[in-house]
Amino acid sequence: MTSLTPVYGIPYQTLADAPDGPNLGEDGFLEVEQELIRIDAAIVANDGATFKLLDAVQTDVAATITTVGAAELSLPRLVSASVTLDSGKLYRTDFQLVTTRTVIADEYEIRVRKDTALTGTLLGSAFAWGTVNTNAQYAKGSILWVPSATGAATLHISVIRNSGSGTMTVYHDNFSQAYTTVVHYKVGSAALLRTVTT
Q: What pTM was estimated for this model as a whole?
């Protein structure tokens, strides 16, 4: 077969080509298989370099979620849908919380827990810093974590004040300033996590 398809270059027989007999189907399908192998390899390589979105939760009510102090408090509106965790994968939780704070030096921690609010397995956490403000502002960050087991789970977000004496109020939304509380749950290849020893 000497004629080729215009995009992938897969050979096929036309009236102008010499008869190919029993090799006609085999030659074409072998070329298709090679192209599928190339596409599969490209997909695997891309998966290893990026995070894919598992679930996204965005609140849409202009109201207070909770006011956080020394006790860990759950943000129930930000629970993920049921997702399948793989212990060989790296996960990233990106959070953007609409907040106000009362004390500038306070330190708050955003946590991701598995299956149960407040008492479920702690998967990871990150600190949320900010300044004293009466107008809403974002507390943003990302939490990287690797699950210890494979299986279905729901993911819960909670907040706790680790040091200081004030409070941080978390809001669903602040329409007057176009701020929205949102959490993205993502998964990527474990190869994205690099261990550095010094």
A: 0.69
